């Protein structure tokens, strides 16, 4: 496969003035007729005419009405064209039913839908399928379906016929078409300037009852973007469609967002509180792309973080405003450490803006998205809220309609603040997670903090240079009082000191408040000082972090030294969790432990070989100790979390359910499954039903409830995904692979559906002790299924390969088994380029 480099960017030789497409839909032979107006691009120097096109049957091609015979390869079409403006026309035939890769135009449960990002449009017709080619699209759809949708505003429609026009120039990756027998859940929004926008959420018959929440989330997002970013919606219509077969969460096509049904459909009976929160965030994310991604798009795919990092940052601000900012920040950091830090530590490490790739689909990563968002958060911390707002206003004003770059983005900050951001730019260009350590010196009322930063070299960045690190720091006095306002220490050197003067007694420093930079911090503190922060830190993140650090240190000592669980940690979190004045959701988070893979990563960082079984045992022992420590209060906290009101997915009720369910888990561990069974039987919502079911499985009493659950929910595919996933997640490590294997034989295991495949194998790959079990059974099983899936859906296969990204951390025996699995996949004839690239990088 060809490697593409950022440094090689050149503009396309032609400007596209307009595109007109006609679709004559047929499940096996859809005809796509295109009429594209081109003229030479004055900024280009190469005028060779090449249009991308893959898996297309060309029926005819014309230039200015005269038939031409272009040269066709498996990548596209080229032909001689005039120097003057010209119209290219083509008629191609495509096979939506045969398109199991779910890129381009495909069928899902009898409906037609599209997925064009990143390079799917070339499977629809011949076109310059690159994000810097923007054009207006006119689309005609002919087909025997009640609903025929495309981007923009409707022009006309009659039975079996619809015309659409999108006045906003867009790249082809934002094109969308949907056709089917769908039901609309309507809504309405009036913009701040008084324009009425019609909203619809289209679903398959039977799903009408799961639309209300998505529609409310959309309206809330539209309002928030006006209020916080001054961004107004710009068409008369905004449509969302739910699709069952989808490779990712959702897609921001202009005016016609397409969603994985798991990312939009919700009801209290079938969706958990976490599902509701995720749906709200994804709807917001896709909606926010209308400005950050669509109106201002990316010049090339190396700039992906320009739209994704910013849009993730915006959706996290939205969730913080809609729910609890403290809980959102902690959840985001847990996720970042679990996914992005792992990526940065292994063979897939790459900068937020990569410099080369083979298959762009493999770069929709935690680094581009989540670290990309962290970089924006740091920028805002450094320049301040007002300057951030001014810079964003300038960004929208200066680049509306552009295909922009990270340089453009940073320039608006430089121009509004006068700052030189050349060193800050390293956050975009260097891979790896900086390690930040701090030493303290105390003398005569002066505290000196000396920081050292070091980023481990990687293949992507062999010689990392010091980065700008904003370190939000506070000081907690001996009485637990805050001694000064949080200060942002701006670290730019490899080693740098900061001084706090005029202090009375020696304070405890609260460093990296709010997780102000995506780094691994080492701050040696005495146990008493750490406990002091857990008891008193006014920064909600660092208070939680103190508990988490104590948990990690205790677990590591349990794993490596056979130590007992740290009683100071247990007492510390007991005090916080029993403090009824705190938000229940925050208290529930306090009860979480570092994940087993986080512990493996910490051991690896210390130069040790992690033993997944020992890590698992330590986690179990710690949970037993927690159950014992909370024996006095668990039942009363559980009772206090009961809700005497109809189900509401908002933060307040969700927080209570989260704490109540954490208590249920501790109670079940110490006693038996009776309380869980009672909750299961009484549950009128999925959050409580599913967590009771998990407790029952863990207690060894799950069989009857699992069967009951299956017969209750057999016809609901999203709930059945939970049923499949939970059994793997809750399996004993030695049984996880066998449980997954058995589930693949279930008649409802439709492996071609990405959600169902992920329910089983995504769960297996995050089951740390199960996936890395010494038998190697999980490695072998996943390899078998990845080989099978690759022939059908390379994109989802390639993403699932990340399960193996940490394989070199483990012992020689496990490594040999993982290597054998990887080699077996790599030896598969006709393995897709997507999977080949991922596995070649992972195998190393
Ligand atoms: N911009 C989208 C990313 C995407 C995608 C979505 C669905 C299927 C395939 C896809 N390839 C890339 C989603 C987002 O970040 O909003
Ligand atoms: Zn996005």
Describe it for me?
With 844 residues, this protein is an alpha+beta fold. 41% of the residues lie in helices and 20% in strands. The protein contains 27 helices and 31 strands. An eight-stranded mixed beta sheet has the order 6-5-9-3-2-12-15-14, with no helix packed on it. A five-stranded mixed beta sheet has the order 17-18-19-21-20, with helices on one face. α6 crosses α7 and α15 runs antiparallel to α16. The chain starts with a strand and ends with a helix. Zinc ion binds next to α3. GO terms for molecular function: alanyl aminopeptidase activity; metallopeptidase activity; zinc ion binding.
Topology of this structure?
Layout: E1 4-5, E2 14-24, E3 30-40, E4 50-52, E5 57-63, E6 66-67, E7 71-72, E8 76-78, E9 86-94, E10 104-108, E11 111-115, E12 135-142, E13 147-150, E14 153-158, E15 161-170, E16 177-180, E17 183-190, E18 196-203, H1 212-229, E19 237-243, E20 250-251, E21 256-260, H2 273-288, E22 297-298, H3 304-322, H4 325-345, E23 356-357, H5 366-383, H6 385-399, E24 403-404, H7 406-417, H8 426-429, E25 435-443, E26 446-454, E27 469-476, E28 487-491, E29 495-500, E30 508-511, E31 520-523, H9 527-536, H10 540-561, H11 567-577, H12 584-590, H13 596-605, H14 612-629, H15 634-640, H16 651-670, H17 674-682, H18 686-698, H19 702-713, H20 717-729, H21 736-744, H22 754-766, H23 768-771, H24 777-790, H25 794-800, H26 812-826, H27 833-843
Parallel strand pairs: 2-12, 18-19, 19-21, 22-24, 25-31
Antiparallel strand pairs: 1-23, 2-3, 3-9, 4-8, 5-6, 5-9, 7-8, 10-11, 12-15, 13-16, 14-15, 17-18, 20-21, 25-26, 26-29, 27-28, 27-30
The chain binds (3S)-3-amino-4-(1H-indol-3-yl)butanoic acid and zinc ion.
(3S)-3-amino-4-(1H-indol-3-yl)butanoic acid binds at residues 115, 117-118, 247-248, 250-252, 285-286, 289, 308, 364.
């Amino acid at each position: 496969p060809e490697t593409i480099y950022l440094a090689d960017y050149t503009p396309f030789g032609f400007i596209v003035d307009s595109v007109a497409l006609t679709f004559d839909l047929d499940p096996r032979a859809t005809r796509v007729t295109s009429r594209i107006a081109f003229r030479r691009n004055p900024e280009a120097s190469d005028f060779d005419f090449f249009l991308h096109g893959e898996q297309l049957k060309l029926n005819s091609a014309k230039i200015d009405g005269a038939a031409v015979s272009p040269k066709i390869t498996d990548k596209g079409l080229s032909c001689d064209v005039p120097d003057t403006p010209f119209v290219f026309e083509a008629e191609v035939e495509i096979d939506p039913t045969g398109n199991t890769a779910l890129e381009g135009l495909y069928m899902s449960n009898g409906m037609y839908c599209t997925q064009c990002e990143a390079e799917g449009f070339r499977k629809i017709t011949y076109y310059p399928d690159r994000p810097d080619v923007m054009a207006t699209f006119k689309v005609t759809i002919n087909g025997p379906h009640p609903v025929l949708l495309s981007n923009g505003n409707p022009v006309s429609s009659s039975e079996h016929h619809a015309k659409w026009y999108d006045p906003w120039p867009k790249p082809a990756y934002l094109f969308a078409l949907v056709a089917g027998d769908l039901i609309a859940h309507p809504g309405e929004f009036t913009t701040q300037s008084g324009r009425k926008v019609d909203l619809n959420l289209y679903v398959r018959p039977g799903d009408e009852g799961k639309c209300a929440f998505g529609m409310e989330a959309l309206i809330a997002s539209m309002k928030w973007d006006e209020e916080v970013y001054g961004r107004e919606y710009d068409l008369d219509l905004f449509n969302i469609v739910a699709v069952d077969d989808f490779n990712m969460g959702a897609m921001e096509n202009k005016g016609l967002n397409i969603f994985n049904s798991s990312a939009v459909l919700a009801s209290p009976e079938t969706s958990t509180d976490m599902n509701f929160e995720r749906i709200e965030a994804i709807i917001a994310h896709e909606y926010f792309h209308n400005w950050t991604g669509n109106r201002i798009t990316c010049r090339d795919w190396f700039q992906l973080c320009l739209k994704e990092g910013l849009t993730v940052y915006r959706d996290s601000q939205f969730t913080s405003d809609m729910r609890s900012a403290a809980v959102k920040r902690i959840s985001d950091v847990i996720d970042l450490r679990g996914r992005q830090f792992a990526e940065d530590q292994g063979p897939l490490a790459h900068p937020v803006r990569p410099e080369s790739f083979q298959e762009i689909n493999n770069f929709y990563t935690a680094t581009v998205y989540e670290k990309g968002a962290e970089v924006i958060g740091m920028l805002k911390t450094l320049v301040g809220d007002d300057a951030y707002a001014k810079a964003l206003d300038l960004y929208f004003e200066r680049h509306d309609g552009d295909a922009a770059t990270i340089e453009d983005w940073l320039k608006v900050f430089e121009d509004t603040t006068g700052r030189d951001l050349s060193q800050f730019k390293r956050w975009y260009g260097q891979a790896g997670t900086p390690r930040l350590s701090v030493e303290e010196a105390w003398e005569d009322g002066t505290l000196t903090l000396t920081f050292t930063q070091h980023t481990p070299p990687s293949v992507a960045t062999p010689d990392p240079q010091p980065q700008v690190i904003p370190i939000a720091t506070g000081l907690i006095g001996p009485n637990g009082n805050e001694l000064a306002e949080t200060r942002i220490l701006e670290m730019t050197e490899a080693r740098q000191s900061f001084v706090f003067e005029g202090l009375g007694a020696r304070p405890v420093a609260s460093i990296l408040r709010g997780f102000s930079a995506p780094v691994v911090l080492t701050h040696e503190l005495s146990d008493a000082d750490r406990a002091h922060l857990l008891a008193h830190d006014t920064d909600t993140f660092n208070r939680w972090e103190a508990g988490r650090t104590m948990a990690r240190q205790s677990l590591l000592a349990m794993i490596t030294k056979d130590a007992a669980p740290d009683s100071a940690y247990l007492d510390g979190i007991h005090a916080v969790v029993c403090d009824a004045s705190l938000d229940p959701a925050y208290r529930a988070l306090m009860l979480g432990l570092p994940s087993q893979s986080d512990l493996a990563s910490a051991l690896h960082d210390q130069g040790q070989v992690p033993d997944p079984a020992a890590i698992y045992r330590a986690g179990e022992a710690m949970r037993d100790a927690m159950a014992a420590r909370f024996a006095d209060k668990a039942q009363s906290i559980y009772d206090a979390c009961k809700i005497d009101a109809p189900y509401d997915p908002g933060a307040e009720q969700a927080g209570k359910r989260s704490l109540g369910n954490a208590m249920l888990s501790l109670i079940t561990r110490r006693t038996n499954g009776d309380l869980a069974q009672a909750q299961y039987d009484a549950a009128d919502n999925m959050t409580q039903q599913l967590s009771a079911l998990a407790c029952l499985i863990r207690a060894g009493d799950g069989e009857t409830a699992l069967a009951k659950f299956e017969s209750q929910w057999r016809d609901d595919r999203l709930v059945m995904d939970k049923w499949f996933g939970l059994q793997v997640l809750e399996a004993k490590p030695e049984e996880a692979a066998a449980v997954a294997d058995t589930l693949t034989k279930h008649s409802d295991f439709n492996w071609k559906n990405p959600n169902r495949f992920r329910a089983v194998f995504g769960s297996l790959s995050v089951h740390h002790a199960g996936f890395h079990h010494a038998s190697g059974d999980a490695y072998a099983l996943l390899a078998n299924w990845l080989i099978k899936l690759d022939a059908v859906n390379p994109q989802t296969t390639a993403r699932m390969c990340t399960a193996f990204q940490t394989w070199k951390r483990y012992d020689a025996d496990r490594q040999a088994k993982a290597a054998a699995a990887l080699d077996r996949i790599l030896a598969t004839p006709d393995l897709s380029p997507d999977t080949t690239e991922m596995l070649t990088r992972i195998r190393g």
